[in-house]
Amino acid sequence: MSLFEENQTIAYATLPEQDSQPSPGSIVSTGGWREVKNGIYDTPSVLNKIDVPVIKHEACEALYAEDGGYKVTDEMFCAGLSGEAAEDTCQGDSGAPVYDGDGDSGRDRLVG
């Protein structure tokens, strides 16, 4: 069983500069193999991808303070949408890479 089609290009991601983070408002991408439909977990045959905005550190801290008081350190960043149209990764996708486009190389850059 092959996870990729034969003529599909696979490329490596570049690494970010040390101590750098994506800017609030910039778009990052992530994904995973989990999917929830009508409350039932499923494993699709196609990798899911979602593009989400990076949110301000202060807003992230406030959200996590409301949700159990988790500490958001300076080395962390948050990305996502809220409200009725909110989409994110699913349980089981924890640890998935977060990446953005590296304008210099034209490749994806791993940021989280």
Automatic annotation (TrEMBL):
Entry-linked Pfam families: Trypsin
GO cellular component term, pick one: extracellular region
Main location: secreted
Chain spans, region Disordered: 1-32, 86-112
Extent of Polar residues compositional bias: 1-29
Keywords per UniProt: Hydrolase, Protease, Secreted
Protein's cellular compartments: Secreted
Name the record gives this protein: Trypsin-like protein
GO BP annotations, alphabetical order: proteolysis
Superkingdom, natural source: Eukaryota
Electron transport among keywords: no
Organism: Hapsidospora chrysogenum (strain ATCC 11550 / CBS 779.69 / DSM 880 / IAM 14645 / JCM 23072 / IMI 49137) (Acremonium chrysogenum)
One GO MF term attached to the UniProt entry: serine-type endopeptidase activity
Xref: SUPFAM superfamilies: Trypsin-like serine proteases
InterPro entries given in the database record: Peptidase_S1_PA, Peptidase_S1_PA_chymotrypsin, Serine_Proteases_S1, Trypsin_dom
Domain (Peptidase S1): residue spans on this chain: 1-112
